[in-house]
Amino acid sequence: MFRFEVEYQSKKFPARTGKIITHRGIIETPHFMPVATQATIKALSPEIVQSLGYQALLCNTYHLYLRPGIEVIEKLGGIHKFMSWKRHIVTDSGGFQVYSLSQFRQIKEEGLLFKSHLDGSEHFLTPLKVLKIQKKLGSDLLMVLDTCIPYPCSYEESKALTELTHLWAKKSWEYWEKNRNPKQALFGIIQGGMYKDLRKKSSKFIASFEWDGIAIGGLSVGEPPELRNIMLDVSVEELPPHKPRYLMGVGTPLDLIEAVLRGIDMFDCVLPTRNARRGSLFTSQGLISIKNATFKDSSEPLDPECECYVCQNYSKAYLRHLFQAKELLIYFLLTLHNLFYYAKLIKKLKEAILKENLDSLREEIKELYKKDNSEN
Amino acid sequence: MFRFEVEYQSKKFPARTGKIITHRGIIETPHFMPVATQATIKALSPEIVQSLGYQALLCNTYHLYLRPGIEVIEKLGGIHKFMSWKRHIVTDSGGFQVYSLSQFRQIKEEGLLFKSHLDGSEHFLTPLKVLKIQKKLGSDLLMVLDTCIPYPCSYEESKALTELTHLWAKKSWEYWEKNRNPKQALFGIIQGGMYKDLRKKSSKFIASFEWDGIAIGGLSVGEPPELRNIMLDVSVEELPPHKPRYLMGVGTPLDLIEAVLRGIDMFDCVLPTRNARRGSLFTSQGLISIKNATFKDSSEPLDPECECYVCQNYSKAYLRHLFQAKELLIYFLLTLHNLFYYAKLIKKLKEAILKENLDSLREEIKELYKKDNSEN
Q1: Whole-number percent of chain A with pLDDT over 70
Q2: List of chain B residues whose C-beta atoms are within 8 Å of the C-beta of residue A67
């Protein structure tokens, strides 16, 4: 029910194009997944997101588990029906949100103990429980529970947390072998912190199971991009070519191209949607802020080279007005623009792989965003 | 450039169907206008609003004058282009918002002195200035400056304020006769407070000018519905049949039918859009609150009899989840539903006029919303 095909392998880089084929349809890779944290892409209807070409979204298990609760979504017929999204849904394990959102948390050998950021209620997530939760949600691609390694983190702690990730991966696989749902695919997750030998070891270990795909976790946690790229190189080296590779939580346009170049097939990130809500837009001229006072009476579109609905119909002056007035429509419009930009960027990346000119596209994007590294 | 045609005059009531014909197109009456206060229907794109059948919107001059400023909109090519709305735009004079929003205001014979609710800056609106502003905005239907009479208000004060409205109406007309823009239509406004003789007098006085249409102001300011209906009867009695009649700021489904029955052709109100943002929905079962705990795992649509996009695609459980999670998409969905409901209600009203069964529709709507008078 789940298959991955590499369609073109670059001769210059580990980069490749391909497709994931599931009972639900196709995800062409490389693919960027917008984040629908609480079972909605903030401010956009599913039809709009689909019309932009997105074939998969990421939903956050942690959030849905706490609200509205897994039973509600299961009773409603699963996450697709619940949120009225007909294409693929990937769910994470919840581990990262426990790490980033919960006030109180304890990492135990058996799992993660934490208090809800909503009401302080206590919860315990184990490797098996997060799989059972994701089975009930009915997502298409499931993630195993892993540990989150902060940055910076000592070698000893990184090693211990990575070993725990491995223990949980093993338990997850043993459970999955006996209890898999053939319509759902499971991805293992590589950790290893920012240490080459730990990364390498984790990558080898995770690659030794028959997951449907392999995710690279623990990056984009505050480390410099150069370090991330090294870790990415080390991780990918150990992976079999015939499985899709998913870099979690990444990233900026430059991050995406750096990762695609290194052989990554899938991404998710809140960046385009979150930036939009903050008035920060990706354009062919780099990042622009809609708050810019010079836009006050500008009849220009956000991006003269953009064919999106927003750039075809609205001026910077109008968008700035809506943003200043905190009008709800602005979140719809700016999110739509940024997701259009990301969809187009992914198309460009694919073309660049096929044309073997990823390096010149990288230079172009580096140049475009060179003053905006702080936005990462 | 502006014409009004009565198409069917009810034999039982002053109610009628008709159409306003302008250089921009047609407004079929009775027509309800959603309110686009700051040049946007909150949370909805213009295409969606248009797809629901709305042929005219109301924008608030007061808000646009303060932000982004009239010069900005004029420079951008006028209000239609600014907000990307291709059908009719009605603008009010700003008088009501000075009354309801401004911290400090003074009614002078020459006009209204007030301080901006945004930054405290001082402004002075005169009858001529509000027409000049609306000319620059480029709206299709303009309103004269009038005074707002609070409820309750003494006879003496109501009389004085009504006379000032008349003085301003006269000045407005004199200006308009010499400076009209043939693509724009001007409506006079009746005041008179809650006193039958003042209403009658105001109605007669306003009807004595050659406005393109006549608005009834100063209602829906807190008075009981019975009193409003009496004032409406008195006002309409004095009006010529061949001009469109616009009841400003009204209202609930029952208010609409009471007014249509009394010969009103146009309305505007924030009720459907504002209620939506507060989670209060109009349905074939009356008003429902999306916060209702019993909807927690309900797979039912908001309204089983509704054909709108929201009721066709989403469960109460999902909508409640989005509302509880304060997700931006909820404002889009609930506003869409309520505006769909109002558009359908207006269709029903038209049919009821044609079938001469407005009275039974009134009883039906009264019954439906009898427990919800507080929402008015």
Answers
A1: 99
A2: 321, 324-325
- A318, B39: Cβ pair inside 8 Å? yes
- Which residues of chain A from 290 to 319 reach within 8 Å of chain B, CB to CB? 296-297, 299, 313-315, 317-318
B136 touches chain A (CB under 8 A): no
Confidence of residue B372 (pLDDT cuts 50, 70, 90): low
Q: Does A118 touch chain B (CB under 8 A)?
A: no
Q: Does B207 touch chain A (CB under 8 A)?
A: no
Claim to verify: residue B40 and residue B164 sit in the same structural domain: yes
Number of domains in chain B: 2
- Residue A334 C-alpha, separation from nearest chain B C-alpha, in angstroms: 12
pTM of the model: 0.97
Do B98 and B123 reside in the same domain of the chain?
yes
| A374: confidence class by pLDDT, cuts 50, 70, 90 | very low
- For A290: left if phi > 0, alpha if psi spans -120 to 50, otherwise beta; the answer is alpha
**pLDDT at B342 exceeding the cut of 70:** yes
d(CA A189, CA B98) in angstroms, rounded, equals: 60
- DSSP characters over A54-94: --EEEE-HHHHHHTT-HHHHHHTT-HHHHHT--SEEEE--S
Q: Let me know whether A264 and A295 are in one domain.
A: no
Please determine, for residue A184, whether its predicted confidence score (pLDDT) is greater than 90. Answer: yes
Examine the pLDDT at B376 and tell me if it is beyond 50. Answer: no
3-state SS record for B91-103: ECCCHHHHHHHCC
Please give the ipTM for the structure prediction.
0.97
**Which of B35, B57, B72 is the best substitution to test chain A (most A C-beta atoms within 10 A)?**
B72
